[in-house]
Amino acid sequence: MSNDLLVVRNLVKYFPVKQGVFSRTVASVQAVDGVSFSIPKGKTLSLVGESGSGKTTTGRLVLRLIEPTSGEIIFDGTPVNTLKKGELRRLRKRMQLIFQDPFGSLNPRMTVAAVLGEVIRTHAGRAGIPAGFLSKTAGRDAGAPSERDRIMELLDLVGLPAAAADRYPHEFSGGQRQRIGIARAIAAEPDLIVADEPVSALDVSIQAQILNLLEDLQERLGLTYLFIGHDLGVVRHISDMVAVMYLGRIVETAPVEVLFENPVHPYTRALLAAAPVPDPDAPRRRVLPPGDIPSPINPPSGCRFHPRCPDAQPECSQREQRLIEATPGHFVACAVHVSKV
Amino acid sequence: MSAAAGQNAKQSYWRLVWRQYRRNRPALLGIVLVAFMGMLALAAPFLAGDAPILMKKGGHIYLFPNLFNYAELKAENLYNNFDRWEPGAGEWGLRPPIPHGPTRQDLKHRLESPSREHLFGTDDRGRDVLSRIIWGARISMSVGFISVGLALLIGVVLGALAGFYGGWVDVVILRLIEIWICVPSFFLIITVMAFLEPSIVNIMVVIGITSWPGVARLVRGEFLKQKQMDYATAARATGLTDRRIMFRHLLPNAITPVFVAATFGVAGAILTESALSFLGFGVPPPTASWGEILKQSQGYVDFAWWLVMFPGIAVFLTVVAFNLVGDGLRDAMDPRLRQ
Question: Which residues of B touch A100 (CB under 8 A)?
Answer without folding.
Answer: 230
